[in-house]
Design the sequence.
């Protein structure tokens, strides 16, 4: 039977060896809270997306959900919603941010604090301020922006999702309404040990675009022929892992990390 959406228990089972784990208490809470939140939010699908580590140890659990995926301008577009929790039981909306705020969020480095109420202060030069003259006694004060931690969290999730979001090649198809739906005739990956067997979720079904066409060295795949399980990991965003189980015909992914991009990757290739 073809998988319609990832199973949290199987994802944690197959990716535990990669370090993609949550506590037993959180997993027990997730088994009950995510189905309830999916119904409350009116979503067709809702699953655990990942865990972003924090300085105070109160990590952010992030859930990803959507209703409809459609074909627009040569890509698969998902109406995605994100939610966050720090105990796995109570979920709150993780609101999208505008482009200007996203640009400022990208300047904030390091681990998140773990305090959802925290604000980061960023200073920018006032573009409307006059140029200071040598005779001026007072310095021109910069503009100060308050950036909420939850905005930084959302921006990091968006950046990771845009660069990862892996699914098996040909596991989705386009229906008559140009919607991206699970391929119920998917027979499995012919060569699970190769990157050609996997694609980004936002690549259109049948487009032929696979992970092998990404920048060389950004992905690594390991296949256990005895268990029939492949593990794909991102080197661009360390902490993102995807698994594909050939015998069970299941797959799923999880991110566990600080949400930061590996900007040294180009020097490692």
Sequence:
């Amino acid at each position: 039977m073809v998988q319609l959406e990832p199973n949290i228990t199987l994802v944690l089972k197959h990716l535990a060896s990669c370090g993609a784990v949550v506590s037993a208490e959180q997993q027990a809470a997730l088994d009950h809270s995510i189905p309830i939140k999916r119904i409350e939010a009116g979503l067709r699908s809702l699953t655990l997306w990942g865990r972003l580590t924090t300085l105070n140890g109160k990590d952010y659990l992030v859930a990803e959900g959507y209703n409809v995926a459609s074909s627009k301008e040569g890509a698969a577009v998902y109406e995605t919603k994100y939610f966050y929790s720090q105990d796995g039981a109570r979920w709150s909306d993780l609101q999208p941010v505008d482009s200007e705020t996203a640009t400022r969020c990208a300047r904030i480095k390091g681990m998140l604090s773990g305090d959802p109420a925290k604000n980061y202060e960023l200073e920018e030069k006032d573009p409307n301020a006059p140029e200071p003259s040598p005779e001026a006694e007072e310095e021109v004060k910069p503009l100060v922006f308050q950036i909420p931690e939850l905005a930084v969290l959302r921006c990091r999730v968006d950046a990771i999702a845009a660069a990862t979001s892996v699914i098996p090649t040909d596991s989705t198809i386009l229906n008559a309404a140009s919607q991206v739906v699970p391929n119920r005739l998917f027979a499995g990956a012919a060569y699970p040990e190769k990157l050609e067997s996997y694609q980004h979720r936002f690549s259109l079904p049948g487009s032929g675009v696979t992970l092998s066409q990404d920048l060389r060295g950004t992905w690594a795949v390991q296949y256990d022929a005895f268990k029939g399980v492949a593990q794909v990991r991102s080197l661009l965003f360390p902490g993102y892992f995807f698994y594909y189980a050939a015998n069970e015909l299941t797959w799923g992914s999880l991110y566990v990390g600080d949400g930061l991009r590996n900007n040294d990757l180009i020097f490692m290739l």
